[in-house]
Amino acid sequence: MVDVKRIRNFCIIAHVDHGKTTLSDRLLESTRTVVKREMKEQLLDSMDLERERGITIKSHPVSMTYLDAKGDEYLFNLIDTPGHVDFSYEVSRSLAACEGALLLVDASQGVEAQTLANAQLADNQGLKVIPVINKVDLPSADVTRVSKQIEDVLAIPAEDALLASGKSGLGVEDILEAVVQRLPEPRWTENKKSRALVFDSQYDSYKGVICYVRVFSGSISRHSSIVLMSDGRKTEVKDIGRFCPQPVPTEQLAEGEVGYIVTGIRDVADIKIGDTITSSQDPASEMLPGYKEVRPMVFSGLYPLDTNDYEKLKKSVGKLRLNDAAFTYQSETSAALGFGFRCGFLGLLHMEIIQERLRREYDLDLISTYPSVVYKVCLTDGTFKEIDNPLELPDVTEIDHIEEPTILARIHAPNDSIGDMLALVSEKRGICNNTETIDETRVMLTCSLPLNEILVDFNDRLKSITHGYGSMDYDMAEYQTASLQRMEIMVNAETVDAFSTIVHVEKAETRGRVLCEKLKEILPRQMFKVALQAAVGGKIIARETISAMRKDVTAKCYGGDISRKKKLLEKQKKGKKRMKQIGSVSIPQEAFVQILKSGS
Fold it and tell me: Is the pLDDT reported for residue 46 higher than 60?
């Protein structure tokens, strides 16, 4: 058993694509945690989706043994974290299980939006931060400029920064020595009771719920009886171990250690991320300080393409909810799409990843509705109602005003893109509060924007305007009153609920026209004319018409008087009029898929 004073718990934090996972690979190699023949790139990114996209989605803990310069043995517990803003909740949970953090900054790109956000997260948790300038062997690396940014933007002394390259392994030994020398030993060990923080979890179809835990005080042994402090649920430890990086069973986890516990709990809803585990024989009286409960920002309906897959989808979202505590869901019904779920996500990338995981891991074909946010509706009687589904919006006569969520965004961009960036912010109904110069080539814009406006294409537009050099991070701000209304799409005078959205009054007409034009392309023609209309508050703001398929009823007339042809055409006209009154337009499932895919 390792002395608690020789344990170091730390995580790697950085902006997306600054080389966290590659540096983790070098640390695993240097400490001989993984033998050379088993080594592969991005070893800790075990999910296919992570390896394909080159991003980290889930935090990955791993235990390493390190011999320092004096020959003393240390136990390092490393957690590799995601870098994208949508997964900052994963980062905050990882930080709660650590005492220190390696903050990576790309030597060519410098301090980015998420670098600043993650540094602030670590500072708020009271962690010791070691800055590391990564990728110093790149031809475009500018260490002097980046060192100055670390000092000016992050307020960390430039001389504290270590130089490294995750690709070549340069500086890895210096990092390992710095972890020993600079990072503190495990905290809160003086408590006599056993307490462990659940910072993540995973569902296994054979073992049930596997909890990822950090033991702060005492110890937890195999076959011991434990209690979950949030709800007092008692259970027995079936299996216990560490990640090396594969799960390796041990007899117990002592104070300061990170590992996993298999409890035998089968119901995915019974384990809460951020919960404290203690011994049921001698329980602790006070829970460990967890972290605030995450609130989803973006909502979308998920429906199975085949209605028979509803039960399968229900089980799948339940399992995924355990592996991703930031994902929420509740059942809902749509007249057009049948039974499904209203799901909450942290952002659009998070939504995309969840849908892709449901398709791949659980073999489901899904339709998703247009993403929306949570609005606060103030009714005429003075009460407030929270709405995340356009169909739940009360009648116009009952609404006093609607408030929408806003964000405070920090946009890092090159100097020459500032004009186009301000135009984009203005187009999205935002205002720029502050402009700050980072260095001679980059600026940081602090902007207030409605959350609804950045949902679909804002990040793509930001990347194209800045030629890939721009980045954005945001925090939620307060709700603000806005002129919002529900826009409905009517096909042959019947409202299609799946296409309903809440839009700003100024943008309603443009959005209505786009949707009607798209539907005209997608929907099959009928034997009668079909009107496609966009309506706001009973007023039609856009219209397209799908022309009827026409049978040539005059084909059998060879010559003869013109009145014979007129008579046949009149008869056809009356038949089509009668058909339009009793005919209904059935919208094929593919049309929903296409229109919702092109919702932007």
Answer: no
